[in-house]
Amino acid sequence: MASLRPRHAVLTGAPGAGKTTLLDAAAAAGMVTSPEVARELLRAPGGMELRVDDPLGFAEAMAEAHVREFERHAGSDGPVLFDRGFPDVVGFLDVSGLSVPDAVDRVCRTLRYSGPVLRAPAWSEIYVQDAERIQDWEQAVASDEAVTAAWRRYGYDIIELPLTGVEERLAILKCLLKQP
Asked: Global pTM?
């Protein structure tokens, strides 16, 4: 009997560790992808102000956007590669010193990704701040630790991506998703 292909894959890990570059390469290779919702929120009018002035409200907006993306891809024929997922919101709350709202916890427990969760670890050689990535290096490392712990707390196994180029990472992803 042939093994079933995963329905989902998620890229998680440190800010600035190459997740979006890998997502873009996967899309260019014909894979179905879902963008990082936090970046989209930050780029929207008032998004950065929401993150700075009301991190709990920003986390709730991220969770809602993740739900919309999860539901938008519910009927996809092949696997979908998500740039971050529900437990990343919990990691953001944890690193911010905020409690996890019941609604966010419930989403993490009930809407489950059925495929590999790949962690792009903190990688100082490629890390750069930008308009949306406002964390310094130490904050990026702390964020990586918090989101990784959150994924594990919700029962996911984490696959570590090597600190290597996008082509090698894409080959790993294709193998895990049984893509040609």
From this structure: 0.91
